[in-house]
Amino acid sequence: MGMAVGNGSSAGDEDDGGYRPMAEINITPMVDVMLVLLIIFMVAAPLMVAGVPLELPNTSAARVSQSKKAMVVSLDGTGALFIREEPVSQGNLVPRLRELRSAEGDTVVYVRADKKSNYGDVMDVLGLVGESGYGRVSLLSQPKPKGAQ
């Protein structure tokens, strides 16, 4: 498999002391390293995704801590606002959220809106929630039933 490199003289010449360089590259170790790297990236790449959808198993273990009641701001189809189940006006939303934030601490605010609600109204509510000091806001939706398009 080796290739003899010479100066064009016959093979019987011993000018170079019998040394002939091998002009062949052994790529087997490189292929091994590349396959190992490929496997590592194939395993690690899905784990680098931020929001991996999981189906968690059920357990009979008790919860470690009691969770507080979720902070939910709702906008119904008529434009009425609610904090949890309590009706609130748009002008009173920010002060009421600040009051709840000081009493309960910073938590995630879940914003729900009727699908008939205007997009601009939903954006106004999101802006008011952000103005009240909450840094983490999540939008809630209803999942589609299986088989529905």
Describe this structure in words.
The protein has 149 residues and is an alpha/beta fold. It has a domain at 71-139: Nucleotidyltransferase, domain 5 (2-Layer Sandwich). Helices cover 30% and strands 13% of the residues. It is built from 3 helices and 5 strands; from the N terminus they run αβββαβαβ. It has helices spanning 28-44, 90-104, 119-131, and strands spanning 71-75, 81-83, 86-88, 109-113, 137-139. A 5-stranded mixed sheet has the order 3-2-1-4-5. α2 packs across α3. It is elongated and about 100 Å long. The model has no long low-confidence stretch (mean pLDDT 79).
Strand order of the largest sheet: 3-2-1-4-5
Choose one word for the global shape: elongated
Average pLDDT score: 79
As residue ranges, the low-confidence spans are none
What's the architecture of one domain in CATH terms? 2-Layer Sandwich
For the secondary structure, the number of strands is 5
CATH topology of one domain: Nucleotidyltransferase, domain 5
